[in-house]
Amino acid sequence: MAQRTPITLIPVKFPLAEQGQDLGELVERALDNQNTRLRNGDVLAVASKVVSLCENRILRLDHVQVSIRAKLLAERWQIDPRLASIVVQEADLILGGTRGFLLTVKDGILTANAGVDMKNSPPRSVSLWPENPDHSAARLRRHLQNKKAIRLGVEIVDSRVTALRLGTVGLAIGVSGFKPILDYRAKLDLYGRKVKVTQSNIADDLAAAAHMLMGETREQVGAVLVRNAPVGFAGSGSSAQGKLNPRRCLLASALRGLG
Q1: pTM: predicted TM-score of the whole model, two decimal places
Q2: End-to-end CA distance of the chain
Q3: In this predicted model, what pLDDT tens digit does every residue of 180-236 receive, in sequence order?
Q4: I want to staple 215 with a disulfide (CB 3.0 to 4.6 A). Which of 29, 94, 155, 219 is the partner?
Q5: 174 alpha-carbon distance from chain centroid
Q6: 17: Cβ–Cβ under 8 A, 6 or more apart, which residues?
Q7: Is the Cα dihedral 215, 219, 225, 227 positive or negative?
Q8: Which of 8, 26, 7, 9 is nearest to 18 (CA)?
Q9: Which residue from 181, 179, 175 is spatially nearest to 133, judged by alpha carbons?
């Protein structure tokens, strides 16, 4: 069997992004500044905070009106009432919490605080996830493909926590241009047994690798270029293809309100 070409990860340093900037031009400039050229078949993983800034998905805490429900949640889970109010607005479901955080479902993803985050947001503000991360990824992909005349995949990356594990890992909240899932069903394992259920979320695997280089504080790595990623390119690829109905999810099916 031929060996797979090694995957290469190239961190892309960004200037401090400003609200309302054109995302495509910002990414182009960052790539040009470090003489990194896109190649056919690359996947570009972009930090969600960069996308949120460009799309004006930033809210000033001073302008938030706190609802009664948010006050109750803030008192119970020891959260800033203004933050709790924004989470209530952004979340599809609120399932519970722990001190400082609410456990929520946002866009079919189980995540803390519905993606609302103070970290790496402008002073006295919070960042929200892009309104539609798949559309954001698709717009950036079209922009770069048209400029560079190449086939490209793009994903929007945020961080998440994993049940019973300390620390954050990467999560692909938006995908465009490639299939997020590798399907191993019906293939044979090492001992010749047919695989029945295993599928690999390659989009999240790539997001975790990119997140490792992006960091969480002052790194200013706004994107990571992934070269030779084992993905299947498809114009219809989206994050929805990697989501699971709560009734079929081992963890979510045990949570009150989801099972």
Answers
A1: 0.94
A2: 43
A3: 999 999 999 999 999 999 999 999 999 999 999 999 999 999 999 999 999 999 988
A4: 219
A5: 6
A6: 26, 49, 50, 53, 54, 222
A7: negative
A8: 26
A9: 175
CB atoms closer than 10 angstroms to residue 24: 17
> Please, where are the H alpha helices in the chain?
23-33, 48-54, 68-77, 81-90, 133-148, 202-214
How many whole angstroms separate alpha carbon 40 and alpha carbon 56?
A: 31
What is the set of domains in the chain, with CATH numbers?
Answer: 1-57+129-259 (3.30.1330.100), 61-127 (3.90.1660.10)
CB neighbourhood size of 246 (10 A) = 18
Q: For residue 15, count other CB atoms closer than 10 A to its CB.
A: 12
Question: In sequence order, what are the beta bridge partners of 157?
Answer: 47, 172
Token pair for residue 90? 């952004």
Cβ atoms of 44 and 223 closer than 8 Å: yes
Give residue 98's Cα distance to chain centre.
22
Q: How far apart are CA 56 and CA 127, in angstroms?
A: 9
**What distance in Å separates the CA atoms of residue 79 and residue 252, rounded to the nearest whole number?**
24
3-state class (DSSP) for residue 195:
coil
